[in-house]
Amino acid sequence: MPQPLRVLVVDDETDVQFLFTQKFRREVRQGLLELVFAESGEEALEKLRGGEAADVVVLLSDINMPGMSGLDLLAEVQGEFPDLDVYMVTAYDDGELKTTALQGGARGYLTKPIDFSTLKEEVFGIE
């Protein structure tokens, strides 16, 4: 059986973990997906550096968070984990912010509320 796709979701809103767990419960149960959560950019970096999030291949990060912003996290990840696919998530459909994120190395820019079927197919490659 192939390894599950490990995804690190970074968001300071605690309901995001519940939402992702609910939306992807079948894929997790089937062993297609493994979700790891962090509530800040700093916590995400700790998990990546400490090995708790080893083998993560996709990182989804909110942009607006207290402390380290998602864009700051993106810059850190690009420097330390260049093979990681980073997608920025925001409640604001802002063209300038999107350009900044993509020029900073993000693979994509998603707006809230997240379209989970698109996320599943286009980002995770799960049908």
TrEMBL record:
Every copy of the Response regulatory domain together lies at: 6-127
User: Which InterPro entries does the protein's record reference?
Assistant: Bact_response_regulator (IPR050595), CheY-like_superfamily (IPR011006), Sig_transdc_resp-reg_receiver (IPR001789)
Pfam families on file: Response_reg
Name the UniProt key words of this record, in alphabetical order: Phosphoprotein
Which superkingdom is the protein from?
Answer: Bacteria
Name positions with the PTM 4-aspartylphosphate: D62
Note whether Phosphoprotein occurs among the keywords. yes
Gene3D superfamilies in UniProt: 3.40.50.2300
Protein name (database record): Response regulator
